[in-house]
Amino acid sequence: MSKLSFRARALDAAKPLPIYRNKDLPDLKDCVSINRAVPQMPTGMEKEEESEHHLQRAISAQSVFREKKENMVIPVPEAESNITYYDRLYKGELKIPKQLFHIQPLGLDNEQPDYDMDSEDETLLNRLNRKMEIKPIQFETMVDRLEKASANQLVTITEAKLLLNEDDYLLKSVYDYWVRKRKNCRGPSLIPLIKQEKRDGSTNNDAYVAFRRRTEKMQTRKNRKNDEASYEKMLKLRREFSRTVTILEMIKRREKSKRELLHLTLEVVEKRYQMGDFTGEVLSEVTAPLAEKPMYTSPITLSNGNRHNHKAEIKIKYHGHHNISVKEEDPFDFVRPRKKYTRRDPLCRPGRPAKRQHVVNKADIKQYDFHSSGEEDYPLSPPSEPDEENDPDGAFAFRRKAGCSYLAPCVAQSSGFLWEHPELVGLDAVRYRHSLTALSVPQRCVGLARRRVGRGGRILMDRASSELDTVLKQLDSAVYTSFGRPGPPDCPDPWLSSQNHKTMPRSGSSLADILSNIQDLRWRCFRPRPTQGDCTGDRSTGRPSVDCRLSEALLVPAKNSGSGELFLNTPSAYFAASAVISASGQVNNENKPHNATVNGVLQPSGELWMNRSGRSLCGGGPLFPAHTTTSTPQSLPNHRDQGHGSAVSPAHHHHNARPSGPLPSALKLATVATSSLDRVPKVTPASAIGSMARDNHEPERLALNGISETTVPMEVT
Amino acid sequence: MQSAETLWLCKPRFISCLRSWSVTIPQVTNPGVDVVEGCRLPVLRKNQENEDEWPLAEILSVKEIPGRKLYYVHYIDFNKRLDEWVTPDRLDMKKLQFPKKEAKTPTKNGLPGSRPSSPEREVVRAAGKSLPTKTSLPDFQVLQQQAQNGTARRPMPNQPGRKRKQPPNCGGTDEDSQDSSDGIPSAPRMTGSLVSDRSHDDIVTRMKNIDCIELGRHRLKPWYFSPYPQELTTLPILYLCEFCLKYLKSLKCLQRHLTKCNLRHPPGNEIYRKGTISFFEIDGRKNKTYSQNLCLLAKCFLDHKTLYYDTDPFLFYVMTEYDSKGFHIVGYFSKEKESTEDYNVACILTLPPYQRRGYGKLLIEFSYELSKVEGKTGTPEKPLSDLGLLSYRSYWSQTILEILMDLKPDNGERPQITINEISEITSVKKEDVISTLQYLNLINYYKGQYILTLSEDIVEGHERAMQKRHLRIDPKCLHFTPKDWSKRGKW
């Protein structure tokens, strides 16, 4: 290079290079040194390895001889290829197919056990084979299952029994053998496996850990410092967009529901108009009070917190105790209705003009059911949610709902209970009294209770305890008889019952029986009645129980408590809910002609559901006898202190009868759920009622269990 | 530094790690002297002509088996694959060099290094020198854990002189930077399959851990560490199912496994078959088990291969040779589904029993055939191994020379070709074309322009080589449709 006075131009890859033979260029030698003008390309090897003795030797040999010399190759550790038993080991022959192999990757997983028996196992197998026949594959499958079931600790013999389903002797011997072998095993498993990474990063430097998951990280381009940061921003953006999409999706669903609700309401009004039911007479006829039930005015115990022998009860109680402390800071919406009405309840208590009560009929209510649950609108959140911070009442502030007709509180009629309505005049004398209350179905006495109407029109039972409770329990039969049988025979709307039959024929199956039972019950119980006794019917409906049941079900995965298996798991609950609800939807449609109500119809389903669930929470009444057998005095204080108000959810006063709406689906749901749990058919509803009995604690529990969707759990239920 | 001192006190044997080597002092001749890790001395080995030679070697580990001691030695300036356990009688104790304790302020010559200096290494050392002496501390901690695990091998840190181009995060900033509990200590990059940064090398990965692998008819002696389950590393022989590559601890287990495994070819789609040679394409995401087993096996023979991450972004092309027993694996190469750096091969390996028989070149040729179908140029992922470099150079040389020699004079004009054209025809990346032309000394600057000159011995050498090259890929037998992986969300 030093000899040359000029610089060679850079090598241009796009420029044609003429090809010469050396013999054609005798003067080439003079130019050789210029070779260096072309920048030396790196070999692509690591520098230090590049200088290794054998490589250098091989490279120089190649450049000298232009071919590899036998003794100049890079030496490697030798391999042998004379395994004599190969043919015995790999049996069979393979004819080469004409077609190229094409494999479906999914089909590769056969059910063969991964465990392979060793000679030690063979000894055991031979021993066992003296007593019984056991094939190697069977043994391998057993060990394989045991191994795969033992993550951190060995499976126990009982688990092994469930797992293997083998003959007891065989199981025992294999299990014991396995445990012993496992203990002597040097590896973490009898099936040798590549060491897995641990999430805590402790294995980041472990040479034996291989095939770590690639964390979701962008493969950043080089020379871009901020790529990582911008990638994270993009991730965030994506998350937020997807959240927006979800919200919009939910709004869409909500608005759809609203529209449908509007249409149906319109239809109801039209029907009423066609019927000429301008005064609500048809309705009031239909909803005319049944024969007055005898009242027992003797003091009674609250049988409110029913203690069940079910494990779930414990769980519930736990939450019940924590109720108060958690309440204030609870971020979840379930609490909202409760707290709100804790405050406002005194105001509400005066109640609404009684008129409204009889304006609502069942079909009407079922419509709501149809809307809100038929479409599985669980995530539909109350539209008033966002501005909760500004309201002095915080999350529990009352919010006006679009499309809902609100009625002014009748302050003047501070005692404006439904029975103050002209038709019902004279019945209000009992309204402040705790009177003996009984349920029609199941026929039992719940003790002393006072009925009142919550703000949303839910009927609340305030129960009182007394020493006479035990006595009162024995009154059950008397109650039953005195109540008469206000069932379908007395029903002013026989059509409904027949309708029910149509929808769910009593095919003699238990499901249908239960269903119709419950439907009858609902019919009876939700008739607005002036008597407190009737109100208990409200509680005895399936709706609350389903609420709670399903919440239980929802809780199962979260809590993973021992009682878990007794409940439906969430998916099945959803399934049951949707299935049943669609059925009830049909009923609704068929019922439409009988709708004669306007009030509250426009209320968006979201809140409606809250109402219902809230209402269900206040129901302390039993549905199943199991429920009544025990009572929880200790839960009484809770219930009493914050109970009444908080038990009430934002339903409206005039919707006194409306709550019956959700019942069909709820009941069916309960039935379905019950029947799907063959093993413990009674337990589920019972426990559900148990939790219902816990009434207002329910939302707390839900909240505590981290089911955070605003009203989802309620709506699900 | 405080903790460092403590460490030294309680683990005196680590001291050796921070030593460099001084020329022998008289007491070496004392037969009772202890040969510890880090010592250097000539060790007897047979060369290819079966002659004795005494290359300088470094003791990496010492283990005691009943009756005697064994020393794991690395022959300086020999590839790691020749490292081995030797008996004491092969050590030349007369020339033993003890590691000298490293000076607190390292001087140029005082820095430890397992290899004689070379210009490249000086650079590395300079980089190492700039780091405080703490540099190797993180390794100690890692190693200590190893020691506590009760492995037979004594921990030995990296020699700081050996490729310590560390990113600052494991340089001497704080001792905890590699502490396991503390976040993620510099995980390797997620693309590619090879590591060039060997700073994570520790004594565990520097030493072979598997003695012998039986695969079909063959017994293979692994060349490097491979993370097979640790409990299997103590076995004299690790058995592999020839077709699914599952690892088994005994022949009995293999026998049992073969009753259940009905594979007789790699579990993928056969995309090429000519004669007995077939290629199977395996998706590293869809067929994880096989891909992982293949990687574990390959790691035994590929020093720079990393198994740190999963196999999802790779495709594996397994070359097999058919006989009546099935399709026997000969070699394979892996390939990133999407490469940002024009890599068309990630790892490539011909299994030792098939080496030096033209299969490697066949694999390389196949990889470029795939690139041709894709309409891309490609290059193997770096770093190349010594054998990789030789194979690729040889393939590139033959491929390019083939083109150059076939060029006929056009209208009496001298034939000419651009580098880009060569690259397009061969799918060999431009840089590799240039480096090959350089390596072959074909590029000359003549009368103001670059020309390619073919010398007699180049031409003759090429013709001889091509006569020996029987195994070729026939593009007509390739049934391959490239997938556009970028269109899928994830590989």
From TrEMBL, chain A:
Tagged with keyword RNA-binding: no
Top-level lineage group: Eukaryota
Pfam families according to UniProt: E_Pc_C (PF06752), EPL1 (PF10513)
Subcellular location: Nucleus
InterPro entries hit by this protein: Enhancer_polycomb, Enhancer_polycomb-like_N, Enhancer_polycomb_C
Biased composition (Polar residues): 627-637
Gene Ontology cellular-component terms listed: NuA4 histone acetyltransferase complex; nucleus
Domain Enhancer of polycomb C-terminal: 627-717
Keywords per UniProt: Chromatin regulator, Nucleus, Transcription, Transcription regulation
Domain Enhancer of polycomb-like N-terminal: 7-148
GO biological process terms, semicolon-separated: chromatin organization; regulation of transcription by RNA polymerase II
Chain spans, region Disordered: 372-395, 627-664
Family: Belongs to the enhancer of polycomb family.
Record-given protein name: Enhancer of polycomb homolog
Native organism taxonomy: Eukaryota, Metazoa, Chordata, Craniata, Vertebrata
Encoding gene per record: EPC2
TrEMBL record, chain B:
Keyword Heme: no
Biased composition annotated in UniProt, kind: Polar residues: 132-151
Gene Ontology BP annotations: cellular response to oxygen-containing compound; double-strand break repair via homologous recombination; positive regulation of DNA-templated transcription
GO MF: chromatin binding; histone H4K16 acetyltransferase activity; zinc ion binding
GO cellular component terms listed in the entry, alphabetical order: NuA4 histone acetyltransferase complex; nuclear lumen
SMART domains: CHROMO (SM00298)
Comp. bias (Basic and acidic residues): 96-105
Reactions it catalyzes: 2-hydroxyisobutanoyl-CoA + L-lysyl-[protein] = N(6)-(2-hydroxyisobutanoyl)-L-lysyl-[protein] + CoA + H(+); (S)-lactoyl-CoA + L-lysyl-[protein] = N(6)-[(S)-lactoyl]-L-lysyl-[protein] + CoA + H(+); L-lysyl-[histone] + acetyl-CoA = N(6)-acetyl-L-lysyl-[histone] + CoA + H(+); (2E)-butenoyl-CoA + L-lysyl-[protein] = N(6)-(2E)-butenoyl-L-lysyl-[protein] + CoA + H(+)
Protein name, UniProt field: Histone acetyltransferase KAT5
Source species: Esox lucius (Northern pike)
